[in-house]
Model the fold of this input.
Amino acid sequence: MLRKIGVLGVAVVALGLAACGGTNSPTAKVASTTQRGTLVDNPALRIASVNASDFTAQLSATASGPQLLQLAGTPACGVDFYYFKYWTVGPDASAQEASGALMVPTGSSAPCTGPRPIVLYAHGTTTDSAYNIADISDTSNSANAEAATVAAVFAAQGYIVVAPNYLGYDISTLGYHPYINGAANATDMMDALTAARTALLSSFTPNTSDSGKLYVTGYSEGGYVAMATVKAMQAAGETVTASAPASGPYALEAFVDAIFFGQVNIGSTIFAPVFTTSYQKAYGNVYAQTSDVYSSTYASGIDTLLPTTTPLATLFQNGKLPQTAFFDIKTPMSSTGVAALDAAADQLLALPSSPPYTASEAALFDSGFGSPFLISDAYRVGYVDDAVANPDEAEMTLIGGGTLSSSNIALAATPMLGLRKDLALNDMRAGGWFPQEPMLMCGGDQDPTVAFQNAAIMAALWTPYVQGGLVSILDLNAAPQAGSPFAPLQVALQQEEAQLLAANPATGISSFHTAEAPFCLVAARGFFAQVP
Amino acid sequence: MQKNIVTLAVGAALALTASGAFADQAGPNDVRLGMYFVHYEAQADDISGPYVPAGLNVHLDNVETLYLAYVRSVTSHFDIELAFGYPPVTKTEGRGPATLGSVPYNGQVISTARWVAPTLLFEYVFGSPSARLRPFAGVGVNYTKFVNRQSTAAGNAASGGPTSIGLTASVGPAATAGLSYEITDRWHVYASYSIARVNSKLTADTAGVIRTSEVHFWPNTLVISAGWSF
Done:
């Protein structure tokens, strides 16, 4: 009897199933190829969607939001935030999966729909391996503020934004970040752009499309990456409508030489491990062991220290990194045996409290010396010896008090130290190129983190193009000039920085680099609007 | 839809009545047809996973569907019932904030699924076998499988893209209590109330991002049916 019931049951269930019809709803298609620029999941995931009024309200409710709104303007568009994954290649040409943000303006008003320009945005240095600039919904994510800024400045004003997280972050399994590796960074950016263009086609707003205009920008590390991307895209024959790299270490060799000469920048103890790991992985010529570069206090494990999910404060607290003591407070001496070289090197190794630095500069640079310190004395001496023997002309011009010109800014001809070879290779002066479309280099000459000399050196290199109007330079710390469209930004930034100093005379300057970021992005937007 | 199901039930009952002319007397077999009125006392964990704000939950809409059962009288006091419902489309609504960003959530039908949910019940029938009105109570086991699982347009908007829905099948206890009323020797009408434990792990896959919730559906059903014995 039970058997009969069973048979009946199966039959009825089968009838029921047959009556259901249909299938389960599908999810996104997963790409079957790992070719560069392939979108992994299509359609991409929309993490959040906010209309213009909700975005305005949400920004207004945050501590820094009102100031951002004042600077960026009230959102004209809503923004859809997509998280997309894409295939790119690492410095070793291996296929690598990475992720990024696609921000799409929404709304029916004219600047928010139809064909829209794309801003390819490169983010700044982060030590957070979980950094995800697409995650606007999680205010605890370290990328949240930058995501909100980029969205407010660009996406909410009608620009489609593509912002990769870079290899080494979020889902990337590369294990390190190819930091300031121009070719690798540009490859990452270009592949993200290709994948994002695919994602745009299957977005929730099919009426919003790529107008074909492409603007490239970024701040700090992102400024460097933006310029490297312009260089690579031009070389690949791809058109960049205009670009606005901001506060980036473009003239890399000169910049790092200056640091080793004692002009220690704020953040140097964090940047150094990311740099050396990047170049060691890519070129294998920085050290045989980490103690070749780092003091015995910090050498162990520093090659795998960053990026990480451990907060920086914890790393400092646990003695993994010094907060500011980049070099030994006790000045080491050069001992090559070549008297002239040793004398020149010793002068550069001396504490920067000596002239020609101003008191405020000296105070800033002096904070980079202490004990325990990060960089071994021997490595610093060896670096400075190489910089004296194989000088970067631009840095030597600057440190000698000279004026930059196209005739005194060449890279070192034959650097011998592995790191300096890598810096020269990745220096934006290399390659004999210049921007073929308008470029604005924004920054501030009071920036204590990425020296403004980077922009000044590139401007000197490109003097004919500066004079021709193709390349522009904007110093936010310079005196505002009447009639300049950027004058209001200069005034506003300088007021903010004055407030920072008034609130904290000793350390207020340490926030200048961060404070300048949204001003440069708004300047970039204004610049792009002039290059339709 | 409800009207159609009722029409179908009445039609089927009439068909059975007609076929009854071929049988002489009631036997131990009983086929029942009627309506399920399903009310869910669903309790779900808040949805968890990447990019999910706190406090997102779900609610299930009540459904009605066709009831069909085969009952075998083993003794005059003991029945075995195998009950089915025509697989109903159950709608899941979002519960939580009114909007996610600017996307409507609370009260939106975010997904649908059809339930294939046979239940095997062992019932004790009280009273004299000759009594017209006999209460009964039983326990058994429910098997529920969810098919044709669909994320709606509103669900896709809330989830962030095309979403596949997974709901694990459930096996759980069921219980029933009811009354039968004899109209004729062959014809009875029944009213019963049943409850089953149906637990399922909900998995939503949007562009490879997985969000989950553990859902305890607790369907409790009122069944009104007519049965023909043979």
Q: What stands out?
A: The interface with chain B takes residues 1-2, 5, 8-9, 12-13, 16-17, 19-28, 30, 40-41, 43-51, 54, 78, 82-83, 85, 135, 137-138, 204 of chain A (CB under 8 Å).
